[in-house]
Amino acid sequence: MSKKIILSVQSLEQTIRLDTFLSSLDLFSSRSQVQNLIKKSQVFVNGENRKSSFLIKNDDEISIILSEEFSVIIEPENIPLDIVYEDDDILVVNKPKNMLTHPTAKETKGTLVNALLYKYGYNGLSDINGVLRPGIIHRLDRNTSGLLMIAKNNIAHEFLTKQIKEKTAIRKYLSVVNGNFQEEEGIINFPIGRNPNKPEKMAVVENGKPSITVYKVLEQFKGYSYLELTLKTGRTHQIRVHLSYINHPVLNDSLYNKTKFKVKTTEQVLQAYSLEFAVLRNNDIIELNIEPDSEIQRVLKFLRSNLK
Predict the structure, then answer these.
(1) What is the pLDDT of residue 239?
(2) Which of 17, 18, 132, 224 could tie 54 with a disulfide, CB 3.0–4.6 Å?
(3) Is 19 exposed, middle or buried (0-12, 13-18, 19+ CB in 10 A)?
(4) Do the domains at 3-70 and 83-165 have one common CATH topology?
């Protein structure tokens, strides 16, 4: 028994290979799976079979015919949601650490989407990003906690996505990193793409996508700094890659930081703590802020007591 999935391509800043785009969606467990589907003529772009190297663009429609072994079933789960803001169109939740934003081919339980489906169902969430990402506008890494915008319908989804694309939505993070800074504020502007040698990682690469992170030093200690970071673009692992590249990696980030900090945490010390965006019902601008999470507080307590 086969299943058809339809994806609408949105928010691309440049054309991208068909196989690269599908691999980035976490719908499949490997890039070879994606290429195999394309070779078997099970992937269509705007109704036509295309090769792996075909360049897709915004507003293209991709149809995928999945055989039973590729089907992914997303079950609603009664997982508590920390709702920070809600109206008829938009929801903002505080995602905890150790939780995926949405399911993947390998993990289909315990994600934020499972929790959203239990409370709102598919009919109560936008479907622009397909069955694996209902309502999801942007995502946070598994072990990055903090604020996420969720769309309850497609009009709200497009409204929020436009704000992110036009950079009118402001997303700020808190992090503790290795090293000290001479300047109190700065801009990190280096292109980011897939690491050619380690596909599970991203990297600063010459042909990567334009990526900009703004940092502000909030507090400094002996050998460590507490930062506020503002995203101007939203690449995968952007903050972690940029900070590692300038030799200020995020504490306890096992993927991009070779050293371990004395205070144990659930991976990277990074939190999405502030969101500013317009709401659909009246176009008013709202700003949401949450307190530093418990792990950031523990790290800061140690630094203030021992390394001030």
Answers:
(1) 97
(2) 18
(3) buried
(4) no
Using an 8 Å Cβ cutoff, are 250 and 258 in contact? Answer: no
Confidence at residue 67, expressed as pLDDT on a 0 to 100 scale = 67
In this predicted structure, what is the pLDDT of residue 28?
66
Per DSSP, what are the bridge partners of residue 286?
277
The structure tokens 């939190």 sit at 271
Taking the domain 170-279+287-306, which CATH number applies? 3.30.2350.10
User: How do beta strands 145-151 and 270-278 pair?
Assistant: parallel
- From residue 66, alpha-carbon distances to 4, 36, 212, 262 in Å are 6, 11, 37, 47
Which is the catalytic residue, given 60, 89, 141, 293?
Answer: 141
pLDDT in tens, 100-154: 999 876 788 999 999 999 999 989 999 888 777 899 999 999 999 999 999 999 9
71 in Cβ contact with 29 (< 8 Å): no
Non-local (6+) Cβ contacts of 15 within 8 A are: 55, 56, 57
Long-range contacts of 118-126 (CB under 8 A, 24+ apart): 118/76, 118/77, 118/78, 118/79, 119/81, 120/91, 120/152, 121/76, 124/152, 125/150, 125/151, 125/152, 125/153, 126/151, 126/152, 126/153, 126/154, 126/156, 126/157
Q: In degrees to the nearest 10, what's the CA dihedral of 252, 257, 262, 265?
A: 10
Q: Please give the CATH topology (third level) of the domain spanning 83-165.
A: Pseudouridine synthase (3.30.2350)
Q: Please indicate whether residue 141 is annotated as part of the active site.
A: yes
Cβ contact 148:116 at 8 Å: no
Which pLDDT does position 2 carry in this prediction?
Answer: 57
Check residue 200 and give its pLDDT: 82
- Cβ pair 89, 101 in contact under 8 A: no
CATH topology of domain 3-70: 3.10.290
Residue ranges in the chain modelled with pLDDT below 70: 1-3, 11, 13, 26-30, 67-73, 105
Question: How many degrees, rounded to 5, is the angle at CA 195 between CA 107 and CA 15?
Answer: 85
